[in-house]
Specification:
- The protein is mainly beta.
- It has two domains: 238 residues, no CATH class; 85 residues, no CATH class.
- 12% of the residues lie in helices and 29% in strands.
- The chain has four helices and 23 strands.
- The strands form seven sheets. Strands 2, 3, 5, 6, 13, 14, 15 and 16 form an eight-stranded antiparallel sheet that branches. Strands 18-21-20-19 form a four-stranded mixed sheet, covered by helices on one side.
- A hairpin with a 5-residue loop joins strand 11 and strand 12.
- The radius of gyration is 27 Å and the shape is globular.
């Protein structure tokens, strides 16, 4: 046994010594691990000169720190009220007013995840490196074929952190006992898809400030900091020509209604740039691989493009415990449903107050509340038609 042990020692010890010597020789500078990461793809972005008729207050400030960020699209869970009246003109003037104040463009871009950003240089050009493939959270489809779309956003990085921030909807405002209006934090709607993670870079932060309404927000430590100002985007809405970044893996469903471009061929595999014009049912597309492509972006009034950083929100249904603020815009959809919007908000949102239902809607199997036999004193919809006996079917 001792002989075996001696032979093992005679074999193992020299191997261990050789291993230590080899390790010692590798302790020097590691090659290829400390250098800059190699991008998966790179995109050139050119900022066009401001149009002569652009209002002065829409132009970037003299001290603007302009950057371009890639923002990946969300799969939107639409509000059926807004969708219906986007396709069919509302017959009731009060419903039309709520649509105008609270419904986001159903054909507009809705963000989910912010990717990397890059500064514009003196020549008004930026090189945007995409270090990773998009996060699986922004890809729509099956393992056999998935696709994701993104917009390119020009913003003034007022807080200097190099990151574009997404915005959430403001809380609902209610009438308080002293006659003033204020939020009830317990009545805020559920958020839409969460950001963060990959998708070509770190996720953007979420701020409660509306991008085109409030330019200052409270930072940690009680200090004030300026919010990012949105100055342009390549993809704002499908109602006008736009340019989107696409990423495709595998097959592609030409009949897909995820930001549809019916009539166009599938976008190229991998990263690509797609120029789209025409209505969604008769779209014309020009696609090119990202490498070697350049995208031109224009400066626009912030109010026209700020919606590209407004997070997609799930439809918001609430029990009518408190009376909405007097300045809210309201419409009775039935004797049991009141829809409310607040004016002057760039991140639009409507809230449905229903006498019987759930936070997820009025068709839930087991209602979370039922006050149909005893509505609140302020309830304004007593004379409205009764609710439909089945869920509405919208075209």
């Amino acid at each position: 046994m001792a002989a075996v042990t001696q032979r093992m020692a005679a074999t193992v010890l020299p191997l261990a010594a050789a291993g230590l010597a080899l390790l010692a020789g590798c302790v020097g500078d590691l090659v290829g691990l400390t250098g800059a990461a190699v991008p998966v793809a790179t995109l050139q972005v050119v900022l066009q000169p401001e149009a002569a008729n652009l209002p002065g207050n829409a132009r970037p400030r003299p001290d603007a720190k302009l950057r371009v960020a890639i923002v990946w699209a969300a799969k939107v869970n639409p509000d059926l009220f807004c969708t219906k009246h986007a396709l069919l003109p509302p017959l009731d003037p009060s419903a039309a007013a709520v649509v105008g104040a609270g419904c986001r463009d159903v054909l507009g871009f809705a963000p989910q995840l912010v990717g990397p950003s890059a500064p514009f240089g003196p020549e008004r050009t930026a090189t945007l490196p995409l270090l990773d493939l998009p996060s699986a959270t922004v890809l729509i489809g099956t393992p056999a074929g998935r696709v994701g779309y993104a917009t390119l956003v020009v913003f003034d990085d007022r807080d200097g952190d190099g990151t574009l921030k997404l915005q959430g909807s403001d809380p609902i405002l209610f009438l308080k006992k002293d006659g003033s209006s204020g939020p009830d934090d317990g009545m805020m709607g559920p958020p839409g898809p969460e950001g963060g993670g990959g998708g070509g870079g770190g996720g953007g932060e979420q701020s409660g400030a509306n991008p085109a309404v409030r330019s200052v927000e409270q930072a940690k430590g009680g200090k004030e900091k300026e919010s990012d100002i949105i100055h342009g985007a390549s993809f704002v809405t499908m109602r006008r020509p736009y340019v989107k970044v696409s990423y495709r893996e595998g097959t592609f469903d030409l009949a897909s209604f995820y930001y549809p471009t019916l009539g166009c061929a599938a976008p190229p595999a991998g990263y690509a740039v797609v120029d789209v014009a025409g209505p969604i049912t008769q779209a014309q597309c020009k696609s090119a691989a990202m490498e070697g492509a350049a995208v031109d972006l224009a400066i626009e009034p912030s109010a026209a493009v700020a919606s590209v950083v407004c997070r997609a929100q799930n439809p918001r249904y609430r029990e009518p415990k408190n009376q909405p603020a007097p300045q809210s815009i309201q419409a009775c959809l039935s004797s049991q449903e009141l829809v409310v919007a607040h004016p002057s908000r760039s991140c639009k949102m409507v809230t449905h107050f229903v006498l019987k239902g759930c936070n997820s809607g009025v068709t839930c199997t087991t209602p979370q509340w039922d006050v149909t036999t005893k509505p609140p004193d302020w309830w304004p919809c007593h004379g409205a038609p009764p609710p439909a006996t089945s869920a509405p079917k919208y075209p």
